[in-house]
Structure prediction request, 92 residues.
Amino acid sequence: MSISLLVAVSGTVGKQVVPTTKQTELAYVALTPSAANATVKVKGGDANGEVVFFGRATSANGTAQFEVCHKFTKGMHVTVIGTNAQAYVVIS
Prediction:
């Protein structure tokens, strides 16, 4: 079963979307910029974890879609940067 989670702009702090005590698999990321370009960073573990995925979407081109297929064993942390940007992460 897949779950789609919305992650709004989080600045440099980011958001722990899966606790560090859980395992999950990231299947897909959709990044939607608004008035400005946007970036999304997905880390394993917590905010200090290793960057596993980095994506960028330009406001001129709209939503960028990325297939990731990565298993996280110690949680997942997501950072979204860009005015009014949103990222959907699909996990299972």
